[in-house]
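Input for the complex:
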Amino acid sequence: MNPKLDEFFKSERSRVFEPGPYFTQRVMAQLSGHLAAQRENGIWDGVMAGARPVFALAMVLLLGFLAIQLFLPDNMPERGPIDAVLSPGQTDGEHLIFTGADPSSPELEKMIIITEDGQ
Amino acid sequence: MSFEPELVVRAQAGDGAAQEELVRQFSPMVFRLVSRFFRHREDVEDLAQDVFFKVFTRIDQVRPDENFPGWLRRVTINTCYDELRRTRRRNAAFEIYGPQQESEPVAAVEVASEPGDFGIARVALEALDPKLKIPLILKEVEELSVAEIAQSLGITQTNVKVRLFRARKKLAASLGKVAEDRRS
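Predicted:
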């Protein structure tokens, strides 16, 4: 190797810093501060930093599922208004109510009026 | 250095006195290693503190049969490597996006203040990629063997030899360039 470089590396060997008198206390203070923060943080510190988003997503999904189970009624109506409009099995009366069309014949109109009056 | 492995076991159990003793015993070694890569006392102190913080937060990873000083050296070198890479990225970003300065670059001012050609050598060494700079410093300044460097960096001995060869080649080329710039 270049002799000048050799000399340079030799000079670098003597360039060393020594720890200051309070270095140990600084390290111990930082460490105890970290331990105190860890105790405050609780459950999240037990989970690895990389796994936290996955853990959070799993919690949200689980809570969401539980909420749906709790708040949705057990007995759902079999047919809603949209089904009634789309369904080919609807009666003439249902068709008139859901589509708002005019009765196809005067007899049907009369029948509906009589039914409504009866109720 | 005489060292009681019992201290590590006690430190793993959370014994503060043992942790303090480990810092006291090994801080000169950590400071010496960090000083090889950083020139300012404040940087060296902060990094040495980072090293011990990492050591005690991961001390569970030390196996009873493991060589603690060797493990500590590995943590120290890795910490220095990360910081050198961060500094290099920061400097590169500053050169691209930072304010344009008319004044003389800091490196040039520092070169002029150093005796002989050491300033040129230092600038050339600073310009090396940390991947090449670290093995070179460990070999030439810290006088570690290739096997020890490989163990510290977690790479093969062949890889260390290749990096040393490239580092020397690049350093020689940079030295020539800096000397030429200085003459012109």
